[in-house]
Amino acid sequence: MKITVFVPRETAAVSLGAHDVANKISELPDVNVVRNGSRGATWLEPLVEVEVNEQRIAYGPVTKDDVDSLFESGFLNGGSHPLKLGPTEEIPFLSKQERWTFVRCGIIDPLSVDDYTTHQGFDGLKIALDKGPKYVIEEVLASGLRGRGGAGFPTGIKWKTVADTENAQKYITCNADEGDSGTFSDRILMESDPMSLIEGMMIAGYAVGANKGYIYLRSEYPLTKRIFDKALKAVRDAGWLGKDIQGSGFDFEIDVHLGAGSYVCGEETAMLDSLEGKAGIIRYKPPLPAIEGLFGKPTVVNNVVTLASVPLILSRGSTSYSEFGVNRSKGTLAFQLAGNIKNGGLVEKAFGLSVRELIEDFGDGTASGRPIRAVQIGGPLGAYLTAEQLDTHLDYEAFIEIGAMIGHGGIVVFDDTVDMAAQARFAMEFCAIESCGKCTPCRIGSIRGVEVIDRILDNEDRTNNINLLNELCDTMIDGSLCAMGGMTPFPVRSALKYFPEDFNK
User: Fold this and answer.
1) Geometric angle at alpha carbon 403, from 410 and 491, rounded to 5°
2) Average pLDDT, the chain
């Protein structure tokens, strides 16, 4: 009987040699290699697992050159080796998490429909088809699920709006344009458990009366595209996608559209314009996309993690999801640890833990070993937190109170060598480069912002230029059409407020 060995096919693992490891292991007799996804412990990739007595034993990070010594040490029987990590589920980084959306990631073969269905796959869709659209929307509302793309808008309200808007044609769109710094949860999920997103989009379509879905995927994810296309074909071939799904009378199809590298297309209306074949430029609102979205039709716009969270909400019940979290921040979020961090990776936890817990208990502090000076959460437009603010609890309202945002859950760590004035300048320059150009505060304000910061750093009329920079930030916040210009001042102002010494050198 062949022994099963799991080697990830996920991008980070592949970039570190997972294909070579899998190919070498495949050459050995009595071994069945399964290309699974990633569990999110990125610093351990490639994380290779062997199934021994129905338990997976982990080894990592494994290179091609390690394979021979692994087998010589009795790897197939869970033998001792310097790379042995023990039972995978007992690795502290993983055992302390609360997996919901990512519960199957790293466990299943992402291209196997049988594997997916064995692990509760399509159970949510079955319940939806049995209970009806109204029940689905009520459950999503009751769960407290909010958009995981950054805005945190209640998902159920958005779905109900689309459902209540009369139109013969409606659409489900998935924003997979994951452009925030330090973020990779969408990519990991689409590569490790793509069928959960497919199922989530179908449930959304059934709930609101849509028969067509589009995924807007960033072009910088070529492996994601290849894996997801194969998953779509497998699901379609198994009768879970397309016409008359499983004899239910419900039709639904999904297309994947590649973006062209524009950060602003992560904004929902710019994404819709890009999907329509236009330049990705912000639309005026109203009308809201839920009323007039893609091609002028009622459209649901959700991100990957939002949609992929829905199947288990239906199969396990809304209460089981809403029991996670605190206050109005219900459920879990995939936090992504990046930057100057020792153990980088994806951590799914319920809302309510502190930033410090994430960085110290899961990330094990800085990679450099130096003290933390700043942490940016929420992408390049997120505010910088100081070391003294790390005990802030991760929930939407708590972050609003300190002028910050959780966003997509990306956490970028900086040690005490960081130049915060340079970081503030980067924020303004990033906006100047990525602005769609539709509104003046963003298009021109960001350019002027770079110039003003440069004058401050050159010690040119410092006091007046600092005042001017703050006034410019007010204008961008109040006058920009979208978060691109409206939030660029957040990192700038937090740097000015908490690290003024860096602007006076």
Assistant:
1) 60
2) 95
Give the H or E element holding residue 330: strand 329-330
Tens of pLDDT, residue by residue over 219-235, are: 999 999 999 999 999 99
Band (107; pLDDT cuts 50, 70, 90) = very high
DSSP H helices in 346-504:
355-356, 396-401, 420-434, 440-443, 445-457, 462-479, 483-487, 489-498
Q: What is the pLDDT of residues 362-408, one digit of tens each?
A: 999 999 999 999 999 999 999 999 999 999 999 998 998 998 989 89
C-alpha–C-alpha distance, residues 157 and 427, integer Å: 33
pLDDT reported for residue 76: 93
The pLDDT of residue 147: 87
Q: Which residues of 1-20 are buried (b: 16+ CB within 10 A; e: fewer)?
A: eeeebbbbbbbbbbebbbbb
Burial class (CB in 10 A: 0-12, 13-18, 19+), 252: buried
Residues contacting 59, CB < 8 A, separation 6+ = 47, 48, 49, 50, 70, 75, 81, 83, 84, 85
Query: Is 1's pLDDT higher than 80?
Result: no
441 preceded by cis ω (within 30°)? no
Q: Which of 71, 95, 98 is nearest to 83 (CA)?
A: 71
CA distance 173 to 256: 10
Whole-model pTM: value is 0.96
Find out whether 436 and 483 touch, Cβ atoms under 8 Å. no
Domains of the chain are 3-95 (3.40.30.10), 113-322 (3.40.50.11540), 325-415 (3.10.20.600), 420-503 (1.20.1440.230)
Please say if the pLDDT value at position 487 is more than 80: yes
Three-class HEC string of 241-307: CECCHHHCCCCEEEEEEECCCCHHHHCHHHHHHHHCCCCCCCCCCCCCCCCCCHHHCCEEEEEHHHH
- Alpha carbon distance 391, 385 (integer Å): 10
Q: Are 147 and 155 in contact (CB under 8 A)?
A: yes
